[in-house]
Q: What sequence folds into this?
């Protein structure tokens, strides 16, 4: 089972001082994760390079810095989000040795070289999203499951913990993805969302509706949560969905956009009979689940080609424009690997 991937710290970067703040947060994070000085220095360089790019070339933007776990191994994920002029020639910006203008590294080429996972998407005009993941030992995290995942998970403003959570479990060829949004925010909301994740961690038998019925019972001692779950065998091109409350679900491709329908209620408080609904999951489509920390009727518009990129980039692109900024916000993107 993979726990909720990162809880990101968010930094609005309009001036160099905010880059320093993000770098100091990254230093604390790498210390907590046991990175040595050399590995921590690589993370600091990536944060600095991406942050300075935002100030110097994009007119500002946002850095998200968080930890990623894969069993006992750890990585730091840095997402750079901007709505600037974009890159007319992104490939040339990745040539190692090309400076981005006074930064201590050698441009995006250095960021790519230092990272164990790197991807970017840019529209000109329209802005850019970059994702970089760095591990303590310089080896990529294991990625041997049937799906690829990307997520953004940000606490509500002023909160130290996130009242949303997500996780994915894989067993016998079936992938189960769950997102929970605890009522309100803060520690009690986190307690409710974490309790929902604990149900999936126990690997209960049955389809999503049955699992959510179990979640409802477990959450009776909490303030409750909105919860949604997808179960799929990626080689069958079908998925089953069940949801309680306002966790939203979508199946997105370059030609289609289908909403996954939840029912009204709050797990742990009041729920009607939970029902499973089956949907086609085309080979080229991604599944998106997100809490109401994001707007509900967003569209990719002319940026549908972002779906060709790593799910972390897709999550970052949606978050860049659609996060409400006043509540916990969690969004997860899942793609089957045979479409890459």
A:
């Amino acid at each position: 089972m993979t726990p909720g991937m990162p809880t990101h710290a968010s930094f609005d970067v309009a001036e160099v001082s905010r880059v320093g703040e993000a770098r100091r947060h990254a230093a604390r994070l790498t210390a907590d994760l046991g990175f040595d000085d050399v590995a921590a220095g690589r993370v600091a360089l990536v944060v600095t390079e991406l942050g300075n790019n935002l100030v110097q070339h994009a007119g500002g933007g946002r850095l998200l810095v968080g930890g990623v776990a894969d069993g006992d191994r750890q990585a730091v994920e840095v997402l750079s989000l901007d709505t600037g002029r974009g890159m007319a020639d992104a490939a040339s910006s990745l040539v190692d040795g090309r400076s981005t203008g006074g930064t201590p590294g050698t441009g995006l080429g250095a960021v790519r070289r230092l990272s164990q996972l790197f991807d970017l998407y840019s529209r000109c005009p329209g802005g850019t999203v970059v994702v970089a993941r760095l591990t303590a030992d310089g080896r990529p995290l294991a990625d041997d499951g049937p799906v690829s995942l990307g997520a953004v998970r940000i606490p509500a403003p002023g909160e130290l913990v996130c009242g949303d959570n997500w996780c994915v479990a894989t067993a016998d060829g079936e992938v189960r993805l769950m997102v929970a949004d605890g009522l309100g925010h803060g520690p009690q909301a986190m307690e409710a969302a974490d309790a929902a994740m604990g149900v999936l961690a126990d690997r209960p038998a049955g389809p999503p509706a049955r699992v959510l019925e179990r979640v409802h019972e477990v959450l009776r001692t909490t303030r409750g949560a909105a919860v949604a779950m997808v179960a799929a065998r990626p080689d069958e091109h079908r998925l089953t969905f069940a949801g309680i409350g306002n966790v939203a679900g979508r199946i997105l491709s370059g030609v289609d956009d289908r909403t996954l329908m939840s029912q009204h209620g709050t797990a742990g408080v009041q729920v009607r009979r939970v029902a499973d609904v089956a949907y086609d999951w085309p080979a080229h489509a991604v599944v998106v689940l997100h809490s109401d920390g994001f707007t509900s009727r967003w569209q990719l518009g002319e940026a549908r080609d972002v779906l060709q990129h790593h799910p972390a980039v897709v999550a970052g692109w949606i978050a860049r424009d659609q996060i409400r900024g006043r509540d916990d916000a969690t969004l997860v993107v899942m793609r089957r690997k045979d479409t890459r």
Summary: The CA atoms of residues 306 and 314 lie 6 Å apart. The first helix runs from residue 16 to 32.
